[in-house]
Fold these 2 entries.
Entry 1:
Amino acid sequence: MATKRNPLEELRETVAHLAEQLKLPGSDKMDDLVGDLFGGRPTPARPLAEVQAELDGLIGLESVKEQVRALVALLQVQARRKAHGLPEVATSQHLVFLGNPGTGKTTVARLLAEMYHAVGLLQKGHLVEVDRSGLVGQYVGATAIKTDRVVRRALDGVLFIDEAYALAPEDGRMDFGPEAIEVLLKRMEDHRHRLVVIVAGYPRLMEAFLSSNPGLHSRFAREITFPDYSLDALHAIFTRMLVQHEYALAPGADEMLRRILAGLHTNEDSGNARFARTLFEQALNQQALRLSRHENRSLDTLDRDDVMTLTTDDITGAAAALGAEPAPETQPSRWWHWLT
Ligand SMILES: Nc1ncnc2c1ncn2[C@@H]1O[C@H](COP(=O)(O)OP(=O)(O)O)[C@@H](O)[C@H]1O
Ligand SMILES: [Mg+2]
């Protein structure tokens, strides 16, 4: 993701890098010093209640919401303890997000970063999302520089490493992934109070990743599992997008939507909420195509209903474009039609 870079940040990097090259005693403090002098200015946070409401408004994810609430509550209680002169129990805020693609991991990470900001754990609460390619270089020495740079960008916010298991390939070939992990672990220690790291990926592969390095295992002690969405949840996500964007389904289209969602193979790559989103976007394309093909009607005479309505064909076409097939029509509803 492209982030606007500020020249002072560049300067901070350069100075820190130089200091590292020179291996000056105490040069590890240089980065923090420069960061505190320039650049690292805190930004105002959204009120916690507002971010919390956004999280609560996500469909499904009940267990995830519960765990996030517990994390934030713990921080708030610790902050109150500190205010009363009681010792804080230092807990690690680094997290593992386990879940298939499209289950809401990035969405929740972004909100969690804002919540950490709102309760004062982080000064900025932005999210820097990277995958292996953002951390690992092509030649000796490049990985440390790349990883360092990413860490600096993420300071005072959350570093979200997607498909983190790709940093520890199982086949043990010569690889710079483990170097990135080493640098990361070191920086997590150096910047204990300025960095929260979330590693995310398929549940199956993350276990192997975490056990690839004892330092990882101990630092990422908390796991949050993102289950696949149920058919009803996916239906609700799609329906919410319709409402938000002021579209409506023609009679019969909802039935087709359900059949398509039911036909999704529930496996690691079924797409989950992301599928619901792309299906919606594809349906809009299909609608536009259909309307533009109207023989005796020009596009600027379309009425409100025309441009609002998605038909069964729009939905079917969208699914076909995504290589998805509707599940067979459900028997009970057919009998129901006969009987009524
Ligand atoms: N519970 C939810 N309610 C509504 N939309 C969701 C929900 N979870 C995910 N989405 C949408 O689905 C898409 C994929 O979510 P994302 O957080 O990127 O998943 P992941 O990071 O697990 O691959 C995003 O467009 C997001 O807005
Ligand atoms: Mg993601």
Entry 2:
Amino acid sequence: MSRLKRAGRVLPAASCTLLEELINADKLALPCIAVERGFQSSSSGSTAGAGWRSASLLGAGAALLAAALLSPSPAAAKKELAILPGSKPPASALPKTAAAESAAPPKQPQQQKDDKGRPIYTREEVAKHKTPKDRVWVTYKDGVYDITEFVEMHPGGASKILLAAGGSVEPFWALYQQHRKAEVLQILEPYRIGSLEGGAAAAAEAAAAGADPYASDPARHPALIPRSQRPFNGETPGSLLAANPITPNDIFYIRNHLPVPHVDEKSYKLKVEGEGTRTLDLSLEELKTRFRKHNVTATVQCSGNRRNEMSRIKQVKGLEWDQGAIGTAVWGGVRLRDVLLAAGLSEDDPLVRHIHFEGFDRDPASGEVYGASIPIRKALSYGGDVLLAYEMNGQPLSADHGAPLRVIVPGVTGARSVKWLRRIVASPAESGSHWQQRDYKSFSPCVDWDSVDWGAAPAIQEPPVTSAICEPAPGTTLSAADGEVTVRGYAWSGGGRGIVRVDVSADGGASWRPARLLPPPPGAPQEHGAYAGAWAWTLWEITLPLPQPQGPGGPLPATVDLAVKAVDSSYNSQPDSVAGIWNLRGVVNNAWHRVSLPLEP
Ligand SMILES: Nc1nc2c(c(=O)[nH]1)N[C@H]1C(S)=C(S)[C@@H](COP(=O)(O)O)O[C@H]1N2
Ligand SMILES: [Mo]
């Protein structure tokens, strides 16, 4: 109550409207600015879908190439290619064609040629070719390929291959190891238009100047949609998210506030100290041998997931995440509880209320380290499954995901799962970290950056039930002639509450149909809607009929307005709109997720 009063006192009633002007840039320059340097300007256009940058890249027909490049059986993909109505022989895509020539970069005085007389292109030139309009180029080893014709041959659908447009296909092939590259290469070869400058070795030339604190950041998978470069933040494209209940490590979203610290695994020590403990210094080896190993299948989601929808209502400060700042992995490590008990912490120590985590990452300007805390009840709970993880899906943690050791707090917002864990502190008080005290909190829609009282709201721990549509991608045009559309996505709730139901609408929420819940990932409770320990998301899918014209040439709605909402095991559901939960930092957006797609006859 006192919190509400406090907020009420500082706010003139007139400011309590969502129709206020956008917060101006000066007002945004608040405490978090140091850690949000890289954040990209928003796409706060008023039209639905304005923020969906990558979606428009997905031209019709890409699915075929995806099939060819990603399918387990390239032979089958070739067959598919052969039976396509109106498909041209691949020879039409050779560089001789007028189309390919006209789209070539402006002729340089002396175009460099490779040993076969083919033009040599730089990576920058290749990167300009990401859409059918600009021609779609990809590279494989030192080859440059114009695959535009191939992409356009297919009649439609969202696809994965255009994610590689303008760059190398190799990281995508590595993601889907099941396909045999030699045969897929045969499909690719006729589309070769030239060679890459410096050959395959050019890829290694990336390392930048020494003064840059981000210079030693690791390479990232090109499928990640970057939301900022320094620090790096990137999300998983929807089509890849919905494809697998376990998110492959390489495309798991990355949320870094600071430069990636490189921690030597051999000399690594975890310090455990604070109220009611005797200090421990544990090497990675000691952690692995002195404590029992556990695997926990858990979803991690950033509090800012789906923030871009908030910015469409009124600008918020933060990374413009779409629905991909979420992922699910099987985390391997030791229980935090076991380590705390080994440090002598007593379960009924009245002085210990919070467990703090501190990372090795440090703000190069202020020296501040990343930190967060969780309540003691969660930290010590046997069923709470809080893990000190050194493995992600059976692999050692990568540099971006917190090597060599990170915290995984299942059912709790991502910010508390501290990466590159340096220190654990038992304490009577919450962490004083910026990210615990002055960020990752939500307020009334009327609170702005002038009036915000950070002490007035609790730090986000368990997030509310949420869900999102991952496929079809925004920008996809639906065809009534197809009769139906298949919609896929995820649903997840905080606190280990399982998903009992997911409702999907194709008319903006006027009518609903329950989606089919897909089998939970390995290690998660196998029944849907578990009351506890349901740390992992539920993927779902549904095929819905598309509106049909009444008689030939009859009228059709211009769009199909998809919406999704989920229900968790406490029968919590989601609010229908973003406006009522808008908050200045753009966190915990769990409104119905809506995707409007144009409908053609
Ligand atoms: N040390 C440290 N831990 C951190 C962060 C960070 O910047 N530094 N980011 C946090 C946030 S906000 C999120 S959402 C998750 C993201 O984990 P991921 O990058 O492995 O997906 O890590 C959390 N742990
Ligand atoms: Mo986050």
